[in-house]
Amino acid sequence: EGKGKRRNPLHDFKKTGELMLIKVNKTLEVKTKLLNTTEQCAKRCSRNKGLSFTCKAFAYDRVTKRCHWLSFNSLTNGVRKKQDHAFDLYEKKDYVRNCIIGKGADYKGTISVTKSGIQCQAWNSMIPHEH
Fold it and tell me: Is the pTM of this model over 0.85?
């Protein structure tokens, strides 16, 4: 918390070792580049720097030192998981966690039903209830 200390960009990611995501849906986007550290990959993913899509995850190839930024994560339709000893998967916590903070205006998780099983109303909809 002192001056000069930088926050580790990996804190925003959930790591799963030895896992790669394979896109079955061809419209999902991936970009790769050689980078020396997972921290560099995380920083670019968090800032969406040089990416034409919102980065939701990245996979780091420890052998080739190549970062694979993904427009999807393990919860996205059209994606399958593949065990791969060369890769570590890092998914943005905002897109894989299912907790609501405050009023939920910034919620990016996957829950779309109430505790009792009723389909949630879209944030931009005033039907069937007004906000």
Answer: no
